[in-house]
TrEMBL record:
The lineage of its organism: Eukaryota, Viridiplantae, Streptophyta, Embryophyta, Tracheophyta. One of its GO terms (molecular function) is carbamoyl-phosphate synthase (glutamine-hydrolyzing) activity. Keywords: Amino-acid biosynthesis, Arginine biosynthesis, ATP-binding, Glutamine amidotransferase, Ligase, Nucleotide-binding, Pyrimidine biosynthesis. This is Carbamoyl phosphate synthase small chain, chloroplastic. Small subunit of the arginine-specific carbamoyl phosphate synthase (CPSase). CPSase catalyzes the formation of carbamoyl phosphate from the ammonia moiety of glutamine, carbonate, and phosphate donated by ATP, the first step of the arginine biosynthetic pathway. The small subunit (glutamine amidotransferase) binds and cleaves glutamine to supply the large subunit with the substrate ammonia. GO terms for cellular component: carbamoyl-phosphate synthase complex. CDD domains: GATase1_CPSase. Belongs to the CarA family.
Length: 427
């Protein structure tokens, strides 16, 4: 009897209004119900709410991980990366830099705050799918608009849970990145899925062209005043920044706008000559997915701009800058993905806890004289930031805009402003 009552509570959707919204105008009606993972599995009250395994993750090393699905159905190939962020799964899902990858969250409990209208980092999800230990059976947050399972299913994205994410993470740390195939299709044999994972590669593929905007546009949104934490006091549009969209996250644009910039976003293939004609105060090279060696056209564009206008590179932008300066990039063993990476700023001596998401890095030994390593990742000593003062260049391998993650590195936007100001005053 007790079990039946418990099941009833789980499967009966009940609508309620959360009482403690810090901003009444943001109050939204939220439906509390079990995730689609559970509801799908409950045809009648007398049956158990728990679904049995209906999905597989087959890794290229031959291991097969039986799982339960909670998003779309189908079969998808991708590179598995683990992300150590405790919160921010919606920003992670909408970060275009995850194109071609499955994100495995090391935090075991995901989905409890659902998905909202405000935390999207791009107009769509480009990643291959989501792998988690446990999906929250209820969703409760004052901004919640829908459950994570519904969100994934609507976007035709695969999500699996009930996987030993700790064991997979240990394997990735030990053996390095692995390609995998996620499938809910019973008709496909394990051997077929293994073959699929072994005949696919992410290295050497241009993933930027699939995520970049197609036409230039102006960006005006600042960080919402409710969330602003580092207001620069600049309300005017003091500096015109052209941002190359290699898969740009919205919060980079919001932070630039909050720091007083007028922003024009251009596609990854936009000619450098067109940019220089507009005489911007600065150019930003954004984050973006995949292998920086697979996009020589973007490196050429960066080369044409260097030395003519102050530039700031973030993540992929930093890697392209490294190559344009004559350096080399390489693929890391399992990369950095998470909101808890310690970085030392070698100029100030301060340590920042940073948000990171990359599988490639710049080899500092390959860089020419005059290029300064400004930041180092304290977990593995890899290069986390560069500057070439002679040409007004600065770059970070990680994400000063966070989203998700700590805001320690927001000062980098202020430094970009200072760089543009210095050049403008001396012009
Ligand atoms: N966030 C990013 O820009 C990712 C950079 C690059 N695609 C990498 O994986 O290293």
């Amino acid at each position: 009897m007790a079990t039946a009552a418990f099941n009833l509570a789980l499967i009966n959707p009940s609508t309620f209004i959360l009482p403690k919204s810090p901003n009444p105008t943001k109050l939204r009606v939220c439906t509390l119900r079990c995730s689609s993972a559970t509801t799908n599995a409950v045809p009648g009250l007398s049956e158990r709410p728990w679904k049995t395994s209906d999905a597989r993750l087959v890794l290229e090393d031959g291991s097969i991980w039986r799982a339960k699905s909670f998003g779309a159905s189908g079969t998808q190939v991708g590179e598995v990366v683990f992300n150590t962020s405790l919160t921010g799964y919606q920003e992670i899902l909408t970060d275009p830099s995850y194109a071609g990858q499955f994100v495995l969250m090391t935090n075991p409990h995901i989905g409890n705050t659902g998905v909202n209208f405000d935390d999207e980092e791009s107009k769509q999800c480009f990643l291959g799918g989501l792998v988690i230990r446990s999906i929250s059976i209820s969703t409760s947050n004052w901004r919640c608009a829908e459950t994570l399972g519904d969100y994934l299913a609507e976007r035709k994205l695969l999500g699996i849970y009930d996987v030993d994410t700790r064991a997979i993470t240990r394997r990735l740390r030990q053996d390095g990145s692995l390609v995998g195939v996620l499938s809910t299709e019973e008709s496909k044999t394990d051997e077929e899925l293994l073959e699929m994972s072994r005949s696919w590669d992410i290295v050497g593929v241009d993933l930027i062209s699939g995520v970049s905007c197609k036409e230039p546009y102006e960006w005006v949104d600042k960080t919402n005043s409710e969330w602003e934490f580092n207001y620069s006091g600049r309300d005017g549009e003091a500096f015109h920044v052209v941002a190359y969209d290699f898969g740009i996250k919205h919060n980079i644009l919001r932070r630039l706008a909050s720091h007083g910039c007028k922003i024009t976003v251009v596609p990854s293939t936009w000619p450098a000559s067109e940019i220089l004609k507009r005489k911007p105060d600065g150019v930003l090279f954004s984050n973006g997915p995949g292998d920086p060696s697979a996009v020589p056209y973007a490196v050429e564009t960066v080369k044409e701009i260097l030395g003519k206008v102050p530039v700031f590179g973030i993540c992929m932008g930093h890697q392209l800058l490294g190559q344009a300066l004559g350096g080399k990039t390489f693929k890391m063993k399992f990369g950095h993905h998470g909101g808890n990476h310690p970085v030392r700023n070698l100029r100030s001596g301060h340590v920042e806890i940073s948000a990171q998401n990359h599988n490639y890095a710049v080899d500092p030994a390959s860089l020419p004289e005059g290029v300064e390593v400004t930041h180092v990742n304290l977990n593995d000593g890899s290069c986390a930031g560069l500057a070439y003062p002679a040409q007004n260049i600065m770059s970070l391998q990680y994400h000063p805009e966070a989203s998700p993650g700590p805001r320690d590195s927001d000062y980098a936007f202020g430094e970009f402003i200072k760089l543009m100001k210095k050049v403008k005053l001396n012009a």
